[in-house]
Amino acid sequence: MPDSFATNLDQVLDWSYLHRLSENDPEFELELLRLLVEDLQAQIGGLRAAVEQGDDSALRRIAHRIKGATANAGAFGLRALASQIEVALEGDRPVSIYGYINEMEADLAEIQTFLRAHPA
Description:
- By secondary structure, this protein is mainly alpha-helical.
- The protein has a single domain, classed as HPT domain (Four Helix Bundle (Hemerythrin (Met), subunit A), Up-down Bundle), CATH 1.20.120.
- Helix content is 78%, strand content 0%.
- The chain is built from six helices and no strands.
- The protein has helices at 6-9, 15-22, 26-53, 56-73, 76-90, 97-117.
- Helix 3 (26-53) runs antiparallel to helix 6.
């Protein structure tokens, strides 16, 4: 399914994984990506709320959920960002969690742009 959007999305999605998962069914791939976007919008909102509330436990839980959901869909770039949040929570947080969240939102926007160009 990659096309002109693939250059940007290649850092976010593993197309070969997605193709294997879907058995090369483009409609299934689009539906899976739509479901991922829907889920991540809520999860990323939860991350922001947890940061604002200083709730590290919620941050860990949500980052872990994001890791699982993104790994299942082949969105390994987003999975890596969720992993970085988990690592940051183990240390003294030299890097802002907001930076990772902003990167997640940018990656999510790439997927959304792709989906808008490929309506159901």
